[in-house]
Amino acid sequence: MIGLNNIKDINDEFDELDELEDLFEDLDYDEPTSDQVYKMYGIFLVNFVKTPITINNQNILYNKNISKHPICRGKYKGFEHIITRESKYSGKRDFDKERANKVHWIRPIIENVSDFRVKYFERINSEGLNQRFYWYEEKKFIVIIRETIPGYFLVTAFCVDDGSYVKYKRYYDEYR
């Protein structure tokens, strides 16, 4: 649990969270350009392969299976999962512009967990595994990390829509 003694003052010289903006101004709703995929995947590789994000001195793991998704073909499924969303109708994963445009938000949100604007909470999932939630409520974005043996695993990261806001607010309130 994150204690109140660890809360940072937002008057630091550089406010990383305040600087978070969409990666692309011209990202299409249907599909990114190959240059945009290249840039997003590069960010993913830096954050999870080259200089991995860590929690308690352990690298955050991700799904290393290779994607067959048309946009992510040949890339890690962990990447596919953070730029696509499962369709409730088809069950297939569709490109999600809002998720994809915030792929570079994952690291700063996790690393700034002690900032009062990141609402941190934990919850046991349906499989009995503990999950850590890093919710930047102000910018409507959440990162979910699962505790595994050994370490931590990136589950997903996405924009919290109005329909699911109440659920995450309740989870956060129950945890506090």
What is this structure, in a nutshell?
The chain has 5 helices and 8 strands.
List keywords for this structure.
176 residues; alpha+beta; six-stranded mixed sheet
Please explain how this structure is put together.
With 176 residues, the protein is an alpha+beta fold. The protein has one domain (17-175). It is built from five helices and eight strands; from the N terminus they run H-E-E-H-E-E-H-H-E-E-E-E-H. The strands form two sheets. A six-stranded mixed beta sheet has the order 1-2-8-7-6-5. It has a two-stranded antiparallel sheet with strand order 3-4. A hairpin with a 4-residue loop joins strand 7 (141-147) and strand 8. The longest helix is centred in the N-terminal third of the chain and has 17 residues, at 34-50. The termini are close together. The mean pLDDT is 92.
Give the topology, please.
Elements: H1 34-50, E1 54-55, E2 58-61, H2 77-83, E3 84-86, E4 93-95, H3 97-100, H4 106-111, E5 118-124, E6 130-136, E7 141-147, E8 152-159, H5 162-175
Parallel strand pairs: 2-8
Antiparallel strand pairs: 1-2, 3-4, 5-6, 6-7, 7-8
Order of helices and strands: HEEHEEHHEEEEH
Number of domains: 1
- The rounded distance between the terminal residues' Cα atoms is 9 Å
- Based on CA atoms alone, the radius of gyration comes out at 16 Å
Helix content: 25-40%
